[in-house]
């Protein structure tokens, strides 16, 4: 059986015999860039129905049709983990979103803190990065990227039962205590490059659902801290067991 | 006391009253870009003598002199950890070097594997990235970046007593067994984006000093894997305790 060279996210139901129409961009990529033809295999996922092996049934310049043959992977949901982070410079924000998708975050939430520089993000562009990372990393799930929201408002409306791991360079907390806090819904909060304000820090420390965790004796950039924190969490409470 | 806005790596001894000459690039950065003047404070480190607060004693267009006042941090050596990785695309290779310095690797070793695309690296450029990352992350040590070497030759001359953690997406190893392997000299090997060859994998698995560790059920890019693997190691055996 021919090996599929392309793994594609589509917004369409997938199932045995199901046909999947391609839009112009997808057709251009498959038939123009990748030079695929009728009969060639493609792997598809839509975030709900797992991964499917499909074949090109019709190939055109402006569109095309794929037909699903067989499921190659079941849907694998990541743990119920949110990643909250303060957006930084463009390239590093893109990077955090890519890494969050690879590392298995369920939801990616850019937050505005006292020392966050950006007032705006391009949600659509960041969502596209998450899709691309899922295509790359073999995942069958794409985390949702939310719009920028204020951290204090998010904390004020915090959902009951969701715990929060917060990484503060000024603090030395033990990652070992995470396991004792137990599984269930969690969120990780990565501070901005300038750190949290005194007011924010005091508020975070007083939250009954917050757990401070140290990421070692060196100061990590926000993008490094995001990957390190997700590693610590996935090992202690996630699906890396 | 005025807060130092700049943290600079210098190749010069540091100590009380020690004067440190600046080269043209450093003078341009401090006096041209950062607009510093005589009397302004700078933090200095050289990888050996810890971090020192110095003041500008002479400022010129082509050079200048700093005078060390007091030590602000002792030298903090990272654990004896090597990071071996197969170079990938330029931006991601730069990224791995930056992250290795932040995460506390002692030595950074680009290696050529069967599926490594690059035949060459710019060692000087990568070393400069490691210096910059050390300046940023508040470290007092700068990891050495080695020249590209062949993985099989490195393994053939492997130093006695150094253990090797190797992360293979095809394997499911338990990070928990790392602790039992014990502290001492270690190395982490991150495979290339195309994975290891069958021959390499068989050889690695047969090495008596090698430990396979899983980084979860999703496929990680090499740069993500480097940060995640160093997190796992630092938590189990390094200085994050």
Task: Indicate the topology.
The structure is a homodimer of 241-residue chains.
Chain A: E1 7-9, E2 19-22, H1 24-33, E3 41-45, E4 51-59, E5 64-73, E6 81-85, H2 90-103, E7 107-112, H3 123-137, E8 144-145, E9 149-150, H4 151-156, E10 163-167, H5 177-181, E11 186-190, H6 198-206, E12 210-213, H7 222-237
Order of helices and strands of chain A: EEHEEEEHEHEEHEHEHEH
Beta-strand fraction estimate of chain A: 15-25%
Helical percentage of chain A: 25-40%
For the termini of chain A, the CA-CA separation is: 33 Å
Number of domains of chain A: 2
The CATH topology assignment of the largest domain in chain A is: Alpha/beta knot
Structural class of chain A: alpha/beta
Beta strand count of chain A: 12
Radius of gyration of chain A: 20 Å
By CATH, the architecture of the largest domain in chain A is named 3-Layer(aba) Sandwich
Runs of chain A in which pLDDT lies below 50 for 5 or more consecutive residues are none
- The CATH class of the largest domain in chain A: Alpha Beta
Q: Tell me the quaternary state.
A: homodimer
CATH homologous superfamily placement of the largest domain in chain A: SPOUT methyltransferase, trefoil knot domain
User: Looking at the structure, what is the overall shape of chain A?
Assistant: elongated
């Amino acid at each position: 059986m021919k090996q599929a060279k392309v793994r594609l996210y589509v917004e369409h139901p997938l199932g045995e015999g199901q046909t999947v129409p391609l839009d112009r961009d997808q057709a251009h990529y498959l038939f123009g860039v990748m030079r695929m033809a009728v009969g060639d295999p493609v792997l598809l996922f839509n975030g709900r129905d797992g991964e499917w092996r499909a074949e090109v049934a019709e190939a055109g310049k402006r569109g095309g049709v794929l037909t699903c043959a067989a499921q190659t992977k079941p849907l694998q949901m990541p743990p119920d983990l949110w990643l909250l982070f303060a957006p930084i410079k463009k390239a590093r924000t893109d990077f955090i979103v890519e890494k969050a998708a690879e590392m298995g975050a369920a939801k990616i939430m850019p937050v505005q803190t006292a020392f966050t520089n950006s007032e705006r993000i391009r949600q659509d562009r960041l969502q596209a990065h998450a899709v691309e990372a899922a295509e790359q990393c073999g995942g069958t799930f794409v985390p949702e990227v939310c719009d920028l929201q204020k951290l204090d408002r998010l904390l004020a409306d915090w959902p009951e039962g969701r715990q929060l791991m917060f990484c503060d360079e000024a603090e030395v907390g033990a990652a070992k205590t995470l396991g004792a806090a137990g599984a269930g819904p969690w969120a990780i909060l990565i501070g901005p490059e300038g750190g949290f304000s005194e007011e924010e820090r005091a508020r975070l420390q007083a939250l009954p659902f917050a757990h401070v965790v140290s990421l070692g004796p060196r100061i990590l950039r926000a993008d490094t801290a995001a990957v390190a924190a997700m590693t610590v969490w996935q090992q202690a409470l996630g699906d890396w067991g």
